[in-house]
Design goal:
The complex is a heterotrimer of chains A (362), B (365) and C (421). Chain A is of the alpha+beta class. Chain A is built from eight helices and 20 strands. In chain A, strands 6-7-8-3-9-10 form a six-stranded mixed sheet, with helices on both faces. Chain A has a five-stranded mixed β-barrel with strand order 11-12-13-20-14. Chain A has a five-stranded antiparallel sheet with strand order 15-19-16-17-18, with no helix packed on it. In chain A, strand 16 and strand 17 form a beta hairpin. With 365 residues, chain B is of the alpha/beta class. Chain B has 15 helices and 14 strands. In chain B, the strands form two sheets. In chain B, strands 1, 2, 3, 4, 5, 6, 7, 8, 9, 10, 11 and 14 form a twelve-stranded mixed sheet that branches. In chain B, helix 2 packs antiparallel against helix 13, helix 4 packs across helix 15 and helix 7 packs across helix 9. Chain B is globular and about 65 Å long. Classes of the chains: A alpha+beta (362), B alpha/beta (365), C mainly alpha (421). Chains B and C meet through helix 3, helix 4, strand 8 and helix 15 of B and helix 4, helix 5, helix 9, helix 16 and helix 17 of C.
Chain lengths: 362, 365, 421
Amino acid sequence: MTGETPLVRFENIQKSYDGETLVVKDFNLDVAPGEFVTMLGPSGSGKTTCLMMLAGFEPATQGEIYLKGKVINNVPPYKRGIGMVFQNYALFPHMTVAENLAFPLEVRKVPKAEREERVKKALDMVQLGAFGGRRPMQLSGGQQQRVAVARSLIFDPDLVLMDEPLGALDKNLREQMQYEIKHLHEQLGLTVVYVTHDQTEALTMSNRIAVFEDGIVQQCAAPADLYEKPQNAFVANFIGENNRLMGKVTAINGDRVDVLSDNGDVLVATKINVDAVGDRTTVSLRPERVFVNPEASSVDNLFSARVEELIYHGDHIRTRFTVCGHDDFIVKVPNSAANSLLQHGNTVPIGWKMEDCLALDA
Amino acid sequence: MNKLVNKTLIAAAVATTMMAGNAYAGSHSESITVVSWGGAYTKSQVEAYHKPWMAATGNTIVSEDFNGGLAEIKAQVEAGNVTWNVVDVELSDAVRGCDEGILEVIDHSTLPDGDNGVPAAEDFLPGALMECAVGNIVWSTVFIHDESKIQGVDGLTDFFDLGKFPGKRGLRKGAKPNLEFALMADGVDPADVYEMLSTDAGIDRAFAKLDTIKDSTVWWESGAQPPQLLADGEVTMTTAYNGRVFNAIASEGKPFVINWDGQIWDLDLWVVPKGAPNQEATMDFVKFSTGTKPLADQASWIPYGPLRKSSFGLVGTFHNNAEIDMGVHMPTAPDNFKRALQNDFEFWADNSDQLNERFNAWLTK
Amino acid sequence: MTTANPSIDQTDTLPLKQKLAKTTAIQRRRAFLLTVPLVLFLLISFVFPIGQMLFNSIHNDKVSGVVPKFAVAIQSWDGQGLPSEEIFEIFVKDLAIAKKVREVGRTAGNMATRINYELPGSRSLFTKSARKVGKITEGPYKEALIKIDKKWANPQVWLTLQRASHDLGPSFYVAAMDMKYNEAGEIVKADELYQIYLQNFIKTMWLAALITFICVLLAYPVAYLLAILPLRQSNLLMIMVLLPFWTSLLVRTTAWIAILQTEGVINDLLVYFGVIGEDGRIQMIYNQTGTIIAMVHILLPFMVLPLYSVMKTIQPSYMRAALSMGSKPFNAYRRVYFPLTIPGLAAGTLLVFILAIGYYITPALVGGQDGLLISNLIAYHIQKSLNWSLGAALGTMLLVVVLIFYWLYNRLIGIDKLKFG
């Protein structure tokens, strides 16, 4: 972060609903103006609670939330000026689309003429110019979604919160909407805090992602960092696909860690989250970073593996091997002539580089 | 329906235990439904008529309660589905029901002679034997007060005197017999009441008298209500059926006093809905229950006067208190009968529609 | 698939629609058969009785059924003076036959009752005469009849008989509208002392509206609580709301009497705590107050349940959305939450109002002289006076009022939007 004031700051936030268990344990996060930050995690991990505290619908049990440098813990939601898109859109069913869009302007006492103009602009922005007179129920899911986004933006809020806004859409539409929201974010320079449990969505859209688990942020980083350099086994597992080999640290040498896998193979890995020789470790490896029939000099780890299963995916063949005692070792083999010889039951050499192979916590 | 249909299968056990020694036993026992007004009155009939008859014949009686009127009988007869065998009705209903053909004609010659051998036609009081009905009792509408709360009530005039006795009054919700009470309280001689009510001026005079207590009146509909209203302190005085009041006094020890001045007496009669099942048993019950002894026995349970002259001498004391002589509590006892009016069924048959309409209109104004 | 399906294509002579109809016919027949019991039930228990009520209100054959030949003959009379000797003869003979046959619903008494509605006091004229006409064996019949009772010389009797000889006619609606036929046979307003039905309709409507309004005031917060409370508390509250449903009407009403009467629980407490003196006991029952209290209690669940079922479906995110857009809580409630509850509110209002119009047991028991509502008058005519035709006419008018309200609701809110739960 640079020296400028973050737009949003969570400081040592704790939240408990029942006075016994903490659903958010110690949450700290800064969101810079113009940033698209996603809170990602499985359901029940505390991400939505954090969003609701920011929106003002839930009080924080402890800690402070700042908006533009001011503590807003005691500011009611309607005074926070935060736009919000809800999971089920929360479009008012008894109002038309135009009336829905005009609602935030009305309560701000925007004059009628200006109101109409801005509603029209907003409708055009989401390509729904002709739908102003319809009721939300008469729109498709994607159209409703666009109205919800337009409504959250129409009063030019400093910050827009989105709570799993695409959860109800089918896959194609969801991908399309992801780009649309991303483009709006870029065009309008919005600051967005986004909640989802879909890691692909998070990777596609965000500047930064905070991965939640059990009320704690496991890692908060840019998508590429998160994918390439997960800080612990949970993040590695949650973001993208990975192969996990369990073992014990036998030597640490700078970044290099030697690991004795549980079935007696020796691996060379990059040190990320291990402390000392003798620690248990999870070695994590992305399926697309494994080479079949590599040149021995190009890889740091080389094993022979048995082909268990081949699944045709068009651009690649998803291959399951038995290696190092694991029979669920997945490799994405590019669909090229050289690899077309893989047969079920064959034993082939496979290998990978040390930097692609991360020694994480057990 | 603002009535409690209270079905009680009476004393089936009594019947079965007694069946052993009677002639009908085993051959065929029948069941009939006898409908009456409930409470202490039905109780008196059950004790004096139903139980002895069941014991004698081995038949059973299902006793039902109703609130008077012909509606149910008319509905049953017109639907061709008669389930009631014998019904206890007021005189005006017996006449009207007979006129409309919904009641069986009863052959009076089959009624038993009195125990003293006098034929039924002479034994019954005049008017008790109708084309479709056999009378059983004389009852009366009287007004009552609670002696523990007010004293010195002297005649019907006091009922309408809110100055002398402040508090609410209870009256039956309907034109009959309030118009008669009003005129008598206004000084009209009982003999002139119906003549006067046949004129618009007389009707106006009756309503004008009722107007003086209208705002202080609680209207009751079923006979069980007025003693309760008085006991609850909801009213200071109320009209009521004399038998019910006596029961509250004798059985429950209530400090109620019956004021006989201006009492309006009427007959109750057995009628048989046209097409009632089990005709033989039904008629047998009618004959049995209007015999000398059952009528006299009933009077030991409730002070409603028997309609057979031969029963008069047999009326004794209250069934559970030998110190209460039932004779003096009858509406027809000389002391009670000084200023009494017999309900004129023909007047009401002619005028009840119109007068009730006016009464209802008056009530809501 | 690129090849066309030949069976749907032009190779088939039958159009597609017919083919579809054919294939679904069996399904539809089966579906129809399943609804037959309900259709029959509705026909027998609903359509038929209501049809009969409508019919009864305009149809009454108590004259033509008793003296059939006379009913035809009297139509030729011009209404001047008295009918001819010939008509008198037919009347006397018809009456004698009716007296002899004594068929249920076709007796002189039935006719007497019918004429008595319009000519009060004439009942005994018919019943008495019927007993005596058997003795008239030869003419002149006019003289003989008038000898039995001189009221037969009153042309009014014959005019009324002539009018009532028509089986179909509006005379019961005339009565139900507080009107009557005058001596010239014209429809005029009834004497003010006998006017009751119209103002009673208005009073009933007003009372029902008041009860509905109180029910809305009381039920709305309760339904809201029910919808937002955790399950355990809301269940308990729900039981309390539904309790009146599970108690017999008479028990409930009796309980109200015990609580509200002047020597009752509430008055005793007020006196005990010195709020009022012994003489200042408040009259809360046997008047309008009693009717309102008891009816609100009884009808409250009909308001709570539809409201609750609608509120339950309103997601909290609507309110949150409104707040997040800068609306103050009250405004958000007014603009967003309240409009969303209107379907339930409308259903509850319609339900309570229509039930309240038709309620009569409770008002009769706790309403005192104010407890006489239109349904009590209908019940009076069905049960006591036995003037079923007038009862039917009043019932039909009540039905029409209800239908008008239904139609109004449909216009204002839309029946398809009503939610009963």
